[in-house]
Amino acid sequence: MIKFNQVYKRYPGGHEALKNVNFDIAEGEMVYLTGHSGAGKSTLLKLIAAIERPSSGGVLVKGQNIRSIKSAAIPQLRRNIGLIFQDHKLLFDRNAFDNVMLPLQICGFEHRESAKRVRAALDKVGLLDREKANPIALSGGEQQRLCIARAIVNRPTILLADEPTGNLDTEYANEIMNIFKSFHQVGVTLLISTHDESILRMFPARALHLKQGELQA
Amino acid sequence: MKTLIEHLRVLHHTLRRLLLTPNSTLLNVLIIGIALSLPVGGYVLLKSVQALGAQIAGTPQISMFLATGTGSGDIEHIGDKLKQQAGIKSIEFVSREVALKKLQQSTGLSDVIGGLSQNPLPDAFVVYPGDGSVKALEALRDELKTWQHVEHVQLDSAWIHKLEALLDFGRMAVAILAALLSFALIAITFNTIRLQILTRREEIEVAKLIGATDAFIRRPFLYFGFTQGLLGGIAAWLLVAGSLLLLNHQVGTLTQLYAGNFSLQHLSLADSVTLLGFSAYLGWLGAWFSVSQHLWQIEPR
User: Are residues A9 and A74 in the same domain?
Assistant: First the structure.
């Protein structure tokens, strides 16, 4: 599903964010991406979603090489990937419902069908009763869950989560991890970046450990 | 169907956005309207003057004056020759006696003319050419000049020439003005859209991250540019129409004094449609440049 082959990412100025990264994630697998901040976790996720391109090496996502993917093919790729951001990237000029609606609008869904899907996604993350609320009025945990609802409303086959439990209490973090676990059970491929060791102990799965841009065995 | 619904949705949002900031919308529309009304007004003026020129000029004619003392046999011969000459529609012979009478009647110089001991006027032919173009007229004049017994050939087209040259000059000036102000219109839209993009940066970024195509992101801005350009075109049309109404009132008094028949023509339906289409297109173009520039900046590298 996701395959990295001798991947390097250099930024202008010479900083090497990733060095010779190799790994393979099978379809339906749940994998952690661990390491300190600045170890290259976010860069790695960005490469998978084609937000950035690798400097060299091959990044294969669902059989497509990110290094050579045409700009016009990127939207279609991203519609198959649910992105969950550490800073949520919610839009504060519209309510929770419309935030989750955005991916469906982008794909051109018919309104009634998409309204049903939005409510199902909000229900899944336990925010059905807050659909009219502006995201700014939601708590940190609720904002994170809203971001998850937006990522899954499209029913993507891959979910990428960048520090989804980053600023949350253990209780909220567990809630969110339980949501992820339920996606894993229905066959979604998950890659979750985290520096929170307690999560790994409570929800064990394979972990890729990054240290200064290099994958540790 | 799917796309139609999407387009209607975007149109609805665009109109709402225009109404949300009525002041800046009004100002932009007015600026575009004024910018466009200048070349359009010039165009209308030129068209009216051109029509006036055609009206006054009527059919061009060539006066061919014969040498004094040309016998009636020769005159008849020249008449026959003229009839056979290509490019002539009809001819009219004005004998020196008739010409004198006409002069007496028309100028009020009857006393002076009556005092003349002999008729100073020559016999003349008035030639009505078939082809009214300046080139054909000049060719015909040069041909007639070479004939025997012909003293002088006069072509009444010199002033048409001058008017034509003046109109050409005016047309060029209007074209330059139109080109410059078209750029201004594009720049105005470019800037408006740029400011909108700045305030909606997050939305664009998020939309791109979750799989929006460039077309999807461009669409609302293109609609906005198009609508704003169209409204600007309508404003220009109204400005020109209003100005013509005022000017025609003045021209009416003026032409009455000169016993003429002249009024500024209003824009034809085709011209109006062209104006609106063009301004809408320029607005669209400005928006397209603006969004494309921004999208290019956030492409993955």
Answer: yes
**pLDDT score at B15:** 87
Q: Does residue A86 lie within any of the structural domains? A: no
Residue range B68-109, pLDDT digits in tens: 877 888 888 888 888 888 778 888 888 888 888 877 776 666
- pLDDT mean across residues, chain A: 91
Same domain, A46 and A23: yes
Distances in Å between the alpha carbon of B201 and those of A95, B208, B218, B249, B295?
18, 11, 13, 52, 10
For residue B286, the distance in angstroms to the closest alpha carbon of chain A comes to 23
Outline where chain A has alpha helix (H). Answer: 41-48, 74-79, 96-107, 111-124, 140-152, 170-185, 197-202
> Quick one: pLDDT at residue B247?
87
The ipTM assigned to this model is: 0.87
- If you average pLDDT over residues A116-120, what whole number do you get? 94
Measure in Å the smallest separation between the Cα of B229 and chain A Cα atoms: 26
Q: Are residues A22 and A51 in the same domain?
A: yes
Indicate the residue of B2, B3, B210 with minimum beta-carbon distance to A106.
Answer: B210
Please give the average per-residue pLDDT across A193-214, as a whole number: 89
Question: What type of residue sits at position A118?
Answer: V
Residue B209 sits at the chain A interface (C-beta within 8 Å)? yes
Q: What CATH architecture does domain B61-156 belong to?
A: 2-Layer Sandwich (3.30)
Q: How far apart are CA A82 and CA A121, in angstroms?
A: 13
Give B16→chain A minimum CA distance, Å.
14
Among A102, A126, A155, residue at a domain's last position: A155
Q: Identity (one letter) of the amino acid at B120?
A: P
Q: Could you list the residue range(s) of the whole structural domain that residue A12 is in?
A: 1-80+157-217
Count of structural domains within chain A: 2
